[in-house]
């Protein structure tokens, strides 16, 4: 679990597990399950804004909660205290960002396509340009996701990460990628201080309490997802 936000005033981060039920958008009972989860964690469901994922690098700045679902986006940023941001993941990485000075929060859904497509760089630029953030102040938590122990990839995927070869390894003639390591490296190269980054080392494939697309298969994945969210608090 992430500790970086634990003793920092002004922010609340949450990540569901399997026991919370299916929280994937538009899946059976998703809204009922989400409301139960929010009630249990003393969160106001009416303030929730959720990303409808595209597995890309699109990031939206959220001004209000009039629109509950934001189409074709994998990142949400806001400085509105009346909003709770969320994405869903089931092997991809949930990334939480918080600027304690400018009071800005964000949540990113980072699969390999989004990371290769520059979602980290784009989020950094938007925080600087739209909110005046100094990236040296920003805290980042990288949530649980598939680790290199199970993220088997082919050469064509690795072509998207030239310059990051040290984050791939080979074992028994198979290649594996450390996506968390790449994200961390990208954050640092974009101005985030190394001591302001924390990685949740849990692997979704290994941990039975978490959902995993690769472990459980496509059929099961159709009705499963972990929800990751962040909000500003007074």
Report on the architecture of this protein.
With 234 residues, the protein is an alpha/beta fold. The protein has one domain: CNF1/YfiH-like putative cysteine hydrolases (4-Layer Sandwich). The strands form 3 sheets. Strands 3-5-8-7-9-13 form a 6-stranded mixed β-sheet. Strands 1-14-6-2-4 form a 5-stranded mixed β-sheet, with no helix packed on it. A 3-stranded antiparallel β-sheet has the order 10-12-11. The two termini are 23 Å apart.
The shape, in one word, is globular
Based on the structure given, which CATH architecture is correct? 4-Layer Sandwich
How do the SSEs run, as a string of H and E? EHEEEEEEEHHEEHEEHEHE
Number of strands: 14
Output the number of helix runs. 6
Please tell me the overall pLDDT. Answer: 94
Question: In this structure, how is the largest beta sheet organized?
Answer: 6 strands, mixed
